[in-house]
Amino acid sequence: MKKIIGLLSLFIIISVNGFCQAPPKPYGPLPTQGQLNWQEMGMYCIIHYGLDTYTNKEWGYGDEDPKLLNPSQFSALQIVAAAKAGGFKGVVVVAKHHDGFCLWPTKTTEHNISQSPYKNGKGDILQEYREACDKLGMKLGVYCSPWDRNNPNYGTPEYLKIYQEQLRELYTHYGPLFISWHDGANGGDGYYGGKREVRKIDRSTYYDWKNTWGITRKLQPNAVIFGDVGPDVRWVGNEEGHAGETCWATYTPHAPDEGKEPGNGYVKDYEGTEGTRDGKYWMPAECDVSLRPGWFYHKTQDGGVKSPYTLLDLYYKSVGRGAALDLGLSPDQRGIVNEIDVKSLTEFGELLKQTFAVNLAKGATLTASNVRGNNKAKYGPQFLLDNDRYTYWATDDKITTPQLIIDLHSSKTFNVIRLSENIKLGQRIDSLSVDAFINNKWQQIASATSIGGNRLIRLTQNITAAKLRLRITGSQAAIALSDFGIYKEPVHLTPPKIGRNKAGKISITTEAPVSSIHYTLNGQEPTLKSSLYKGSFTATDDAVIKASSFEGKDQQSETAFVSLGYAKADWKVIDASNNNQAENAIDENSHSLYSTLKQESTSFPQQISIDLGSVKEIKAFGYLPRQDKQFEGIVDSYVFYTSNDGKEWQKVASGEFSNIKASLIEQPVVLKQSIKARYFKFEAVHVIAGNGITIAELSVY
Questions:
Q1: For residues 427 and 30, is the Cβ–Cβ distance under 8 A?
Q2: Percent of the chain scored above 70 by pLDDT?
Q3: Domain that holds residue 527
Q4: Are residue 295 and residue 374 in the same domain, yes or no?
Q5: Which of 23, 421, 434 shows the shortest CA–CA distance to 250?
Q6: Of 81, 172, 239, 616, whose Cβ has the fewest other Cβ atoms within 10 Å?
Q7: 216 shares a domain with 325
Q8: Does residue 32 lie in a domain region?
Q9: Which 3 state secondary structure label does DSSP give 541?
Q10: 222 with 171, same domain?
């Protein structure tokens, strides 16, 4: 009897110890409720619409007439619906861009929508967005530019009061908001009430961020605050829409200069791409990128709208790396999202639904090498297959490299793997590998580093297997894994790539063999009846080429598009500071570079002059900055001249390449009127950094 009682007592003790096992202790910085809400959204859109939509600029100077804003059919409902069709969960409205024009009837400045003809001066575009979001079940956020090129008080303490009051108006009248978005562009030249001067600020201290953020905390306590230094969500460090292969949710921002406090626009932004393992703050990344080449609508960029599969690729590289995707929408001059953009968004949304509709691991038998306290009811691997992102498989404290066998019971074909951690307990896992049991042996099919709120591994080929193995190969603490899934992305053909060499020969290539490639030269969509690509060919000047890959009669890729300026076979450089590399500026090779950086002269302006070989009608020109992720020598202020004899020059355009540091695409400049000329001269007035200029390519159209 004593033995029986002893055994029963031991069993009770073991059972109690097992079922009362304490949950894992949190590791490192943890997310707030607002950050958890933000993480669950995954994707949202930022909307750029305002005076720049009508001036064909990216950054207004601040002297634009409010009367320009008079859309014929503005519809916040159509714009928000376009975002929703793409699977996005909310929109961030650019309520005020750098030109200082406010899309709501603010009391802080006359430079606002009440001075426009829209609804006879009674319009309030922010209120229309608020109502559209409410109707469609979408969340709303606001962007109010700290920099104001219109306000005469910018750069003084008085402006800070104005800016903070603008935030109070927005947060008071248009909530609830999910995010308060703060740009890093600060200070520089502007209209400033007619002063037309350059104004510098101390980016560390001018905006008094601690107290400015306090306005958000008080009026919109559930909204996250975005900026280069957060404090809730950080900029990923590029405007290309992707985070690093490794991307930590924790981050410690650093100022470019030792001993200084970091601030928006004053941070080592490249560190935001990967974040900081064991960083001081929980500050996950947002990946912002525009659906079009530019942030505002430009008619000339209608052919540059990102395709559904390009958006899917960005999804994997942002949301799939634990960050969020913030896609820029650019309503056109009618005040709606263009039909081309809507089509791409809708098809992307359908592609997401098709890919992630079914978790092929559902119904699998999961066998873990370790379960915390052996309490499978509370910490077992079965929670990986439910729909709750905060239930989880956990291990004992000393077990940081467990394994999991996933028996699918029958062969399944997949090409995407998804994992996530319960981030309420911090970001714990450093690395993992996935194996498949193929031909009676384990073969590694994937590996990854950081997981955090979400990790998607896109395989390079389809995998068919009935049994998988997950190996956690590194973790800072006992794991708390909340999700495991496998999915099948639909089959698709990769669109072709179109290029042209200096001799004017057009080539169209694909990454993998296809049955045929068909193309058009008139801007129409290619079909099997269009011209068959048989080899390189010479196209007429200013060609608009579209091409698609075809596999049989049933499969067609998305359309590749390129708008080419004048062919450069007869072009010659007639004057340049560095004649050894000058031809690189017109060689149709975006990776070669014309550079004057290593020369002793540091004076500006610097110029390069081109002979087109014959008289051409010039309607626009383009400057392509260097493509190697370096910033030295990138021109941000220019003058463009034309000539008929190469001696007497006429100035036909001047201005700035706004936002070029974050948007390293070709900078198109449309002339006020077309010019007939044989020669052109590109003059660099100012560069982002360095003592010389760099040019990847110059083009005229």
A1: no
A2: 96
A3: 497-563
A4: no
A5: 421
A6: 172
A7: yes
A8: no
A9: coil
A10: yes
Handedness of CA 678, 683, 688, 694 (dihedral sign): positive
- Rounded to two decimals, what is the model's pTM? 0.84
Q: What is the pLDDT of residues 285-323, one digit of tens each?
A: 999 999 999 999 998 888 889 989 899 999 999 999 999
Q: Which two tokens stand for residue 167?
A: 């935030």
Please compute the mean of the pLDDT values over residues 140-160 and round it to a whole number: 97
Strand arrangement, sheet containing 505-509: 497-500, 505-509, 537-538
Residue 619 has pLDDT above 90, yes or no: yes
Yes or no: say if 116 and 70 are a contact pair by the CB < 8 Å rule.
Answer: yes
Structure-block tokens of residue 517? 């490639």
Distance CA 578, CA 116 (A): 49
The total of other beta-carbon atoms located within 10 Å of residue 279's CB is: 19
Closest CA relative to residue 380, chosen from 397, 367, 389: 367
Residue 103 is encoded by which pair of tokens? 């899309």
Structure tokens at 364: 């699998």
pLDDT at 520: 93
CB burial string 107-132: b at 16+ within 10 A, e below? ebbebbbbbbebeeeebbbbebbbeb
Last residue of a domain, one of 323, 356, 389: 356
Q: What is the pLDDT of residue 11?
A: 47
| C-alpha span between 263 and 279 (Å, rounded) | 17
Query: pLDDT tens digits for 461-492?
Result: 899 999 999 999 999 999 999 999 999 998 88
Q: What is the mean pLDDT of the chain?
A: 92
User: Looking at the structure, do residues 317 and 228 belong to the same domain, yes or no?
Assistant: yes
What does the DSSP 8-state code read for residue 333? Answer: T
> Coil, helix or strand for 247?
coil
Buried b (16+ CB within 10 A) or exposed e, 4-27: eeeeeeeeeeeeeebeebeebeeb
Among candidate residues 699, 505, 695, the one with its CA nearest the CA of residue 592: 695
Q: Is 574 helix (H, G, I), strand (E, B) or coil?
A: strand
What was the pLDDT predicted at 6? 53
pLDDT of 450 strictly over 80: yes
Predicted local distance difference test score (pLDDT) of residue 602: 67
pLDDT, mean of residues 188-192? 94
What's the rounded mean pLDDT across residues 402-421?
Answer: 97
Pair (312, 377) in one structural domain = no
In a domain, 207, yes or no: yes
**Helices 308-317 + 339-356 axis angle, to 10:** 50
| pLDDT for 658 beyond 90 | no
Give the whole-angstrom CA distance, residue 149 versus residue 104.
18
Exposure on the CB side of residue 623, measured as CA atoms within 13 A: 28
In a domain, 5, yes or no: no
Q: In a 3-state reduction of DSSP, which class is residue 34?
A: helix
Same domain for 306 and 389, yes or no, is no
Rounded to whole angstroms, the Cα distance separating 485 from 169 reads 44
Containing H/E element for 76? Answer: helix 76-85
Cα torsion through 235, 239, 243, 245, rounded to 10:
-140
Domains contained in the chain, number? 4
Distance CA 606, CA 601 (A): 10
